[in-house]
Structures are given as structure tokens and as C-alpha cells.
């Protein structure tokens, strides 16, 4: 894997100074600390691994904590660190899943726990192909924005896996720090390995509604949502922030963003898929 080096395990040593940023999971547990170093950036996942990222985001060294499996360190890199590195390289990266519909891409953008992976898995097990589970990477082109394929797997909670994934689907090695399963692409979970042009963006509401509802977003509303769901390695570097904001403003100006609310029930997902496809077809002339 180009730019990724896995080093020997080592006990995490105390670090000088305070992190300039940190992530916590919904229950308040510290998940990631961000430090600046002479060699670039250090991302610490307490009791799991340290990642030393180069200033340009092109390379990273991972030092797992003792007793942390190589698979767990690689999983952290793919799902947590690599999106941040890509953002450092000037790419637009977001907390979002994406699926292929009619040879184009549809993105579901939301914070963790809002159902974007479940939606992607529902499409992928229902005759469509998924492009990414999380870490949506967009690249501007003359035709619009291209969605780059991500890792060919989807992470799901146990109830989503039981409801959506047929028996026989291949799963990756279980991770000690996460109760989610990682379902690998295959006949039961179709994957698209080619870039697709972004056709629609659906920002998922925080809570489920009793009915499926679509709401067109203004450019200003879409910009706020894109900002909230952006991956950024250094949130304090003003020139990078200014450039990122300018890029987001152009993206938000594309007339393809909607807010989507839907019942958070597994038995409603087929209807949700059908409604999304119908909505795309109905709004093709307006988008």
C-alpha cells in the first residue's frame, strides 16, 4: 500500500503539549488526538496506535500499541487516517457513503450513526453497487464531480448485518475495539470499482421520520452541511481552510443537494430505495 508503513508495536509514550484537536465518540470516550510535530502530524488513537503523517499527507508510519493486531492497525488507517491524508493533499473528503444508480453516483452524507452505511448496504444487497461506505472522495472534472471508489467493504452493526446481508457473505477479521462487522464485497454485496459522476446528494436527518421526505437545499444550506461533514487534518491552518471553503462553495452551488428523512426501520428500506430512485428520475430536469 503506497505511502503506508507498519512498524513494530510499541507502548505509547506520553506526549509533550496539548493536542490542537481531538475526536470523541458519542458516549464521550476520547477516540483521536491530533498533534503537530517536527515531522508533520501525529494522530494518536489511545491504546491502539500512533500514526505519524508527513506534512503533505503523502506518507504515514503506523506504530501499533502492544497486542494490537496488524488488521486493526490497517483498519484504522483505511477508515480514519487515509481520509485525513487525502484532505491534506487537497482532495474533498466527507463522512458519506455512495452507491451507483443508473451509471451515476448517489451520496448519503451524515455523521456517524445516521444510517448512511445501512442505506449503502441496502442498495448493494438490492441489486445496485456501492462505491464507498465512508470517506467519500470527490474530484472535480469537466463533467462535474467524480466519486472515487473506496475500500470494497461496508461496516455494519449486528442488527443491520442480520437484516440486510445474505448468509454466506464474506466478513473481515473481527476487531477488538469495534463491535461492527466489516462485510467484504462479493456476490452478496456488489461493489463498483470505477469512478462515477455524482448525480445526487442526500444529507440524512439526525432522527427518523414516519414518512419518506425530500427537501431541496439552497446553496447556503448545502454549504453548511458540507462543512460539517468534511474530513480535515489541520482545522487551524488558515490558508488550507480558506481554500477548502472556496472549493466547498463551488460544490454547494451545484443543484443536486437534498435533505432526506425516512423511517429508521429495516422493513421500510426497500420502499426508501424505490423512493430515492424515483426522486432521482423525477428531478433529473430540475437538478
Structure characterization notes:
The strands form 3 sheets. Strands 7, 8, 9, 10, 11, 12, 15, 16 and 17 form a 9-stranded mixed sheet that branches. The protein is globular and about 55 Å long. It is an alpha+beta fold and 287 residues long. A hairpin with a 3-residue loop joins strand 4 and strand 5. The chain has 2 domains: 4-89, no CATH class; 93-283, no CATH class. It has 6 helices and 17 strands.
The overall pLDDT average reads: 92
Biggest sheet, open or closed, and with what strands and sense? 9 strands, mixed
Cα end-to-end separation? 38 Å
Counting DSSP H or I runs of 4 or more residues, the number of helices is 6
* Rg, Å, rounded: 19 Å
Q: Which regions have little confidence, pLDDT < 50, spanning 5+ residues?
A: none
Query: Outline, from the CA principal axes?
Result: globular
Order of helices and strands: EEEEEEHEEEHEEEEHEEEHHEH
* Number of E-type strands: 17
Summarize the structure.
With 287 residues, the protein is an alpha+beta fold. 26% of the residues lie in helices and 30% in strands.
Keywords for this entry:
287 residues; alpha+beta; 2 domains; 9-stranded mixed β-sheet; 6-stranded mixed β-sheet; 17 strands; 26% helix; 30% strand
Present the secondary structure layout.
Layout: E1 4-6, E2 21-24, E3 30-37, E4 40-45, E5 49-53, E6 60-64, H1 70-88, E7 92-94, E8 96-101, E9 104-109, H2 116-124, E10 129-132, E11 136-141, E12 144-147, E13 153-156, H3 158-164, E14 181-184, E15 196-204, E16 213-216, H4 219-228, H5 238-252, E17 257-261, H6 269-283
Parallel strand pairs: 1-6, 9-15, 15-17
Antiparallel strand pairs: 2-3, 3-4, 4-5, 5-6, 7-11, 8-9, 8-10, 11-12, 12-15, 13-14, 16-17
Amino acid at each position: 500500500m503506497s505511502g503506508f508503513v507498519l512498524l513494530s508495536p510499541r507502548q505509547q509514550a506520553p506526549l509533550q503539549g496539548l493536542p490542537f484537536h481531538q475526536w470523541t465518540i458519542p458516549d464521550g470516550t476520547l477516540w483521536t488526538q491530533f498533534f503537530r510535530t517536527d515531522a508533520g502530524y501525529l494522530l494518536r488513537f489511545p491504546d491502539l496506535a500512533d500514526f505519524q503523517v508527513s506534512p503533505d499527507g503523502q506518507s504515514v508510519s503506523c506504530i501499533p500499541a502492544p497486542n494490537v493486531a496488524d488488521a486493526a492497525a490497517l483498519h484504522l488507517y483505511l477508515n480514519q487516517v487515509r481520509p485525513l491524508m487525502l484532505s491534506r493533499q487537497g482532495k474533498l473528503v466527507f463522512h458519506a457513503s455512495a452507491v451507483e444508480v443508473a451509471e451515476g453516483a448517489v451520496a448519503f452524507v451524515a455523521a456517524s450513526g445516521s444510517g448512511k452505511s445501512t442505506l449503502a448496504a441496502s442498495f448493494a444487497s438490492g441489486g445496485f453497487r456501492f462505491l464507498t461506505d465512508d470517506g467519500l472522495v470527490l474530484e472535480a472534472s469537466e463533467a462535474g464531480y467524480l466519486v472515487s471508489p473506496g475500500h470494497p467493504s461496508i461496516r455494519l452493526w449486528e442488527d443491520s448485518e442480520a437484516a440486510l446481508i445474505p448468509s454466506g457473505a464474506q466478513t473481515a477479521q473481527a476487531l477488538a475495539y469495534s463491535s461492527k462487522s466489516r462485510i467484504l464485497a462479493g456476490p452478496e454485496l456488489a461493489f463498483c470499482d470505477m469512478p462515477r459522476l455524482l448525480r445526487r446528494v442526500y444529507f440524512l436527518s439526525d432522527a427518523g421520520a414516519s414518512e419518506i421526505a425530500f427537501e431541496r437545499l439552497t446553496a447556503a444550506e448545502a454549504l453548511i452541511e458540507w462543512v460539517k461533514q468534511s474530513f480535515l487534518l489541520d482545522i487551524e491552518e488558515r490558508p488550507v481552510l480558506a481554500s477548502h471553503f472556496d472549493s466547498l462553495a463551488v460544490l454547494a452551488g451545484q443543484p443536486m443537494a437534498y435533505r432526506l428523512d425516512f423511517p429508521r426501520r429495516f422493513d421500510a428500506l426497500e420502499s426508501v430505495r424505490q423512493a430515492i430512485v424515483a426522486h432521482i428520475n423525477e428531478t433529473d430536469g430540475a437538478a
